[in-house]
């Protein structure tokens, strides 16, 4: 850890000054942690570059600035120096090589089941992004949630990402890096949480009017709590109907919901020929309410704490 | 009218901000027309500007357009920072915010950075290579008017029909008819296409100019660095812009003619757009950055009173950057899921760009070493560039690392990075260049004292605005969010950022005031060579006479004018003056600009029949040009002698 002292010191200073923590620097799982190690390493290297360039810059500008004394000094022409020029080509090249090796290793590592958990059977969760909400389907448990996802800790979760409409990017910074969710295709992302907690998830890829509201919570629970939640849902949550599902897909912002059964029985948006849910008229009319006051515009988005039809797990703020 | 927009929908109504803009636009237009009529300036405007083919005047028009667009893009930026300065503000609705950041991105890259740099290239390159104009003067005017037509079309979108709202990257499927059915994104497809044709022609024009119009003795390896970088940038333009042309063409087909190239519902391929867009978009960054590097090279050498350190390695590094710029586009969507092998390859190519760029930084530093650094405003901007651009560069390397990028992608960290690259790398360069070459264009220097205000306000504001964004990104804030919840720890940073943007705006205001003040009060008694320059543009009058050089200079080495001064060969012998052949003005380029605007508007509104009819006028313009037998005219020896005597004294 010694070599990371300076950057970590600087970062903690900034954190202190801004009075809050940075999610990227608070990994809660092996994927996020290995990325963070890579980031820390790159920060050390880059700080080295910055220190060298800044020091040279300050020294040269200060020393050779024009003053009253050297007004008559006429600098000599200089051709350049092969040796020096090779030096400042080779050193950056070495830095690039030093960065490349861990980059490639981590890039490969985060595509796989998290290290140390290879024996554990992963849980598959289908993620369907829509305008402007996140839908999570548990095919094994036959449960569907909206805008939050419960996972057991110390279990690799295989998120299968797709979209029912525009392109989104699925990001849970404390658990790992992001990946796009695109219609008619599937991306896979392994994440794992090591301790219980609630972690912020967010869409980072701009996709229209409700984009800013497209966040969700990942709630990591102990295995026992997770099992209990599954049983709870089985007993209390309403069953998802096709009509209800279409209603959820309708462009707008909704609150958390929980259902028995998943929409995968009717449609998997990842299929190449899955039908796209289109609502052109909504987008068009929606657009033209613009300028008639913000109130009316928001009215076309359902309030985010809507409990309508769904089993509500606490209000979102 | 088919399935296009209805008449009742043409004018955007309802929003008080937009209503105010509409009134302001109307009043300004009336004021301009009335002013021109009152001062009887219509024929002056037509003769001196609208029909000009003089590369210097065209350059100045580009620069004026660029500064005006900078104002527009800057206002958009201010609105964004104001809207996010507190959680839950309602200054802008989400739709309005989306239109504003889309306009900000497009305008700053394509209608601010591009015209300012192309304008400078226009003014300076023929002078630096000792030519009397560009290779195709009338084509040059056409390039300008097409750029201007595209820029105007894009700018009226927000009052007529509705503005584009899918981001400057306009990713499909969002930018398709399925999700943005209104005309806004038609403006994107059509106006950028028109401006892009102009840019492509500029690129060709500059390549030919630099290859064919160099004066005697100006070999490639004796060219000034600004000419070199502009030459390579022009090659990238010719390599990259056709890709954008095709992509925009597909987009227009999808949106206006109902094809399914990028849609999802009709089996199109949205990521195809992302690939084509960044195949153009990444090189585009270097199209604007390379000429800027050239500007810094010129200014740093002149104001250190030394030649550029490592000239040949500078040339090699530009070529290296140009080649690599075409090989890195995938780093814009590592998160697409193309797999670790692809991502690793593109990580490596991307990081490699740091090598030639680092080389340049060290060459600039060593140009200053053992020199005598004069702190003029032009030099201050060049100095400020080095540390700020280094921050942009190293964060670029961090973003280049695929796995790490999974945590930065589309966050404010990225926004901070590219502002730290593009503002020092383009805006600082443009300011430096304007302070440096202003006397060459207008015959007076900008005020140094007001310039200091401009410099410090802008620099403090810039760092205050964008430094917090690095941390916002690491705190999980993604880009393009019009609002956010309390309690995420973003508020203080966003507030600092907003305050910074106000200081930044004050810096820009100081710059505008400087232009006004200097225009009114600055001394017109400026020599042809106020900075003791090294390259040929300083060998001729300030402002430059329309024929540039009475006698084309002969070049014997790098830094031609410096050498001439040392050898005492800057004079002009009266007997050697010959008549100068110059191209005639033409109204055709302006006419074409108007026609393209009309066709563009019809296409935006999807009125296909009127568009088809109007596009015949394009052929009319082409035919008029084919029958244009005007071979230009000669400036007589007497006139040349008189002009030269007016600034050189007796010959």
UniProtKB/TrEMBL annotation, chain B:
Transmembrane segments: 17-39, 60-80, 100-127, 139-163, 187-211, 231-253, 273-296, 308-329, 341-366, 378-404, 416-438, 450-473, 493-516, 590-623
Cofactor binding: number and manner: Binds a copper B center.
Biological process (GO), any one: respiratory electron transport chain
UniProt domain Cytochrome oxidase subunit I profile: residue ranges: 38-556
Named cofactor requirement(s): Cu cation; ferriheme a
InterPro entries: Cyt_c_oxase-like_su1_dom, Cyt_c_oxase-like_su1_sf, Cyt_C_Oxase_1, Cyt_c_Oxase_su1_BS, QoxB
Domain of life: Bacteria
Protein name: Quinol oxidase subunit 1
């Amino acid at each position: 850890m010694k070599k990371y002292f300076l950057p970590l010191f600087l970062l903690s200073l900034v954190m202190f000054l801004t009075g809050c923590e940075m999610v990227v620097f608070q990994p809660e799982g092996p994927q996020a942690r290995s990325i963070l190690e890579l980031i820390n390493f790159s920060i050390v290297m880059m700080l080295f570059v910055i220190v060298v360039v800044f020091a040279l810059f300050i020294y040269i500008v200060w020393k050779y600035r024009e003053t009253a004394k050297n007004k008559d000094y006429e600098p000599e022409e200089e051709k350049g120096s092969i040796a020096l020029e090779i030096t400042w080509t080779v050193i950056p090249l070495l830095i690039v090589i030093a960065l490349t090796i861990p980059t490639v290793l981590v890039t490969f590592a985060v595509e796989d089941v998290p290290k140390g958990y290879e024996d554990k059977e992963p849980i598959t969760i289908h993620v369907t992004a829509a305008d402007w909400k996140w839908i999570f389907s548990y095919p094994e448990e036959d449960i569907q949630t909206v805008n939050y996802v419960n996972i057991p800790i110390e279990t690799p979760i295989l998120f299968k990402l797709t979209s029912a409409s525009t392109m989104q990017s699925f990001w849970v910074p404390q658990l790992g890096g992001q990946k796009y969710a695109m219609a008619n295709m599937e991306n896979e992302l392994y994440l794992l949480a090591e301790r219980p907690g609630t972690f912020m998830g967010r869409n980072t890829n701009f996709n229209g009017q409700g984009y800013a509201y497209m966040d969700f919570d990942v709630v990591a629970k102990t295995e026992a709590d997770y099992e209990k939640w599954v049983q709870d849902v089985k007993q209390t949550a309403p069953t998802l109907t096709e009509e209800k599902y279409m209603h959820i897909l309708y462009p707008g912002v909704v609150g958390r919901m929980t259902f028995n059964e998943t929409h995968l029985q009717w449609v998997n948006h990842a299929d190449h020929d899955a039908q796209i849910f289109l609502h052109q008229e909504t987008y068009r009319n929606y657009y033209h309410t613009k300028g008639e006051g913000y109130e009316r515009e928001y009215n076309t988005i359902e309030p985010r704490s809507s409990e309508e039809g769904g089993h509500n797990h606490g209000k979102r703020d | 009218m088919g399935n296009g927009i209805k008449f009742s929908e043409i004018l955007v109504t309802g929003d008080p901000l937009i209503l105010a803009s509409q009134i302001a636009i109307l009043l300004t237009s009336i004021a301009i027309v009335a002013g021109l009529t009152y001062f009887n300036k219509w024929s002056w405007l037509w003769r001196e500007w609208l029909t000009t083919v003089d590369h210097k005047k065209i350059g100045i028009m580009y620069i004026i357009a660029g500064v005006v667009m900078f104002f527009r893009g800057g206002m958009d930026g201010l609105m964004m920072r104001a809207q996010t300065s507190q959680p839950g503000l309602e200054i802008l609705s989400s739709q309005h915010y989306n239109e504003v950041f889309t306009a900000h991105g497009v305008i700053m890259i394509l209608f601010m950075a591009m015209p300012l740099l192309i304008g400078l290239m226009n003014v300076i390159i023929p002078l630096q290579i000792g030519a009397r104009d560009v290779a195709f003067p009338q084509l040059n005017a056409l390039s300008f008017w097409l750029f201007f037509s595209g820029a105007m079309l894009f700018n009226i979108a927000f009052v007529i029909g509705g503005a584009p709202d899918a981001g400057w990257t306009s990713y499909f499927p969002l930018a398709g008819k399925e999700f943005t059915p209104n005309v806004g994104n038609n403006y994107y497809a059509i106006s950028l296409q028109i401006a892009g044709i102009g840019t492509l022609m500029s690129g060709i024009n500059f390549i030919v100019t630099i290859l064919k119009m160099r004066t005697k003795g100006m070999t490639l390896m004796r060219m000034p660095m600004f000419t070199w970088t502009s030459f390579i940038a022009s090659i990238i333009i010719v390599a990259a812009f056709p890709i954008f042309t095709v992509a925009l063409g597909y987009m227009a087909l999808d949106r206006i003619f109902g094809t399914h190239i990028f849609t999802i519902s009709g089996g199109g391929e949205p990521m195809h757009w992302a690939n084509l867009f960044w195949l153009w978009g990444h090189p585009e960054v270097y199209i604007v950055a390379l000429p800027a590097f050239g500007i810094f090279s010129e200014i740093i050498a002149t104001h250190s009173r030394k030649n550029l350190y490592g000239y040949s390695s500078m040339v090699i590094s530009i070529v290296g950057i140009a080649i690599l710029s075409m090989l890195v586009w995938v780093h814009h969507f590592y998160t697409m899921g193309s797999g670790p092998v692809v991502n690793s390859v593109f990580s490596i190519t991307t990081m490699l760009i740091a090598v030639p760029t680092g080389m340049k930084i060290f060459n600039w530093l060593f140009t200053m070493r053992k020199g005598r650094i004069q702190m003029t405003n032009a030099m201050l901007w060049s100095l400020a560039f080095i540390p700020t651009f280094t921050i942009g560069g190293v964060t670029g390397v961090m973003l280049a690392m695929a796995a790490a990028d999974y945590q930065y992608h589309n966050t404010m960290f990225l926004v901070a990075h590219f502002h730290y690259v593009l503002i020092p790398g383009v805006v600082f360069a443009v300011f430096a260049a304007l302070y440096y070459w202003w006397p060459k264009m207008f015959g007076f220097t900008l005020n140094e004292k007001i310039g200091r205000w401009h410099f410090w306000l802008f620099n403090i504001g810039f760092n205050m605005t964008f430094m917090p964004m690095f941390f916002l990104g690491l705190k999980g804030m993604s880009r393009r969010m019009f609002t956010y919840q309390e309690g995420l720890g973003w508020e203080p940073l966003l507030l600092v950022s907003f305050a910074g943007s106000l200081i930044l705006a004050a810096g820009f205001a100081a710059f505008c005031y400087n232009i006004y003040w200097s225009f009114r009060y600055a001394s017109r008694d400026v020599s042809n060579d106020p900075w003791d320059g090294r390259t040929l543009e300083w060998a001729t009058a300030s402002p430059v006479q329309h024929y540039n050089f009475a006698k084309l200079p002969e070049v014997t080495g790098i830094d031609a004018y410096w050498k001439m001064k040392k050898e005492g060969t800057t004079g002009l012998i009266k007997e050697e003056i010959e008549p100068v052949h110059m191209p005639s003005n033409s109204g055709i380029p302006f006419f074409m600009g108007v026609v393209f605007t009309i066709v563009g508007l019809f296409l935006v509104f999807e009125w296909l029949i009127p568009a088809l009819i109007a596009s015949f006028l394009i052929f009319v313009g082409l035919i008029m040009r084919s029958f244009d037998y005007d071979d230009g005219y000669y400036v007589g020896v007497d006139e040349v002698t008189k002009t030269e005597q007016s600034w050189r004294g007796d010959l």
